[in-house]
């Protein structure tokens, strides 16, 4: 991450810290995480590698890491969003159901409208999505429907098999 983009993104995130803290999340660099009884929930901010002078292009990744499955797979510690058993780009949680990237001027102050837009998306789409997967069997139930964001069908079937064997 280029230093000007890194500085801009960290400044943007500092404007969202209070919202995430009210939801029980903590931030480390560009990832917010919450450890619940059954899973890790992660919200990660990804900067594009596109070279856009004076601009920053970013998106949001959402991840769920099932603790029971992690134990079976001998995955220790706090996961990275890329290690999560479910990953979804925020754009696919929105009504448009397509990838969403923001492009903003990184040489100007952060627009309050951007912060407000992001808070709205977090409140209306991201947190309900995570809440809908927070019970012990929610992720397993989702996988049984044939849906497995961020994973292949083979991984989904393997996860189902492993979790059902542990019951």
Describe the structure.
This protein has 167 residues and is an alpha+beta fold. The chain has one domain. The chain has six helices and six strands. It has helices at 3-14, 17-22, 67-72, 112-131, 138-144, 153-165; strands at residues 26-28, 31-35, 39-47, 55-66, 86-89, 102-105. Strands 1, 2, 3, 4, 5 and 6 form a six-stranded antiparallel β-sheet that branches. Strand 3 (39-47) and strand 4 (55-66) form a beta hairpin. The chain is elongated and about 55 Å long. The N and C termini lie far apart (43 Å). The model has no long low-confidence stretch (mean pLDDT 93).
Q: Helices and strands in order, then pairings?
A:
Elements: H1 3-14, H2 17-22, E1 26-28, E2 31-35, E3 39-47, E4 55-66, H3 67-72, E5 86-89, E6 102-105, H4 112-131, H5 138-144, H6 153-165
Brief digest:
The protein is α+β, with helices and mostly antiparallel strands. It is 38% helix and 22% strand.
List the domain count as a whole number: 1
Number of DSSP E strands: 6
Largest sheet: 6 strands, antiparallel
* Unreliable parts: none
How many H/I helical runs? Answer: 6
- The secondary-structure element order is HHEEEEHEEHHH
Give the overall silhouette: elongated
Structural class designation:
alpha+beta
Taken as a percent bin, the fraction of beta residues is 15-25%
Integer-rounded radius of gyration: 17 Å
Helix fraction? 25-40%
């Amino acid at each position: 991450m280029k230093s000007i983009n890194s500085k801009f993104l960290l400044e943007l995130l500092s404007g969202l810290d209070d919202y995430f803290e009210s939801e029980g999340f903590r931030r480390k660099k560009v990832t917010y995480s919450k450890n619940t009884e059954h899973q890790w929930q992660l919200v990660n901010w990804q900067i594009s590698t596109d070279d856009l002078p004076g601009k920053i292009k970013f998106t949001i990744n959402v991840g769920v890491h099932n603790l029971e499955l992690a134990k079976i797979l001998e995955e220790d510690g706090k996961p990275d969003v890329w290690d999560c058993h479910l990953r979804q780009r925020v754009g696919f949680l929105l009504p448009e159901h397509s990838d969403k990237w923001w492009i903003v001027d990184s040489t100007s102050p952060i627009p309050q409208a951007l912060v407000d837009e992001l808070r709205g998306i977090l409140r209306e789409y991201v947190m309900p999505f995570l809440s809908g997967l927070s019970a012990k069997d929610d992720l397993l139930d989702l996988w049984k429907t044939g849906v497995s964001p961020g994973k292949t069908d083979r991984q989904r079937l393997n996860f189902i098999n492993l979790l059902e064997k542990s019951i």
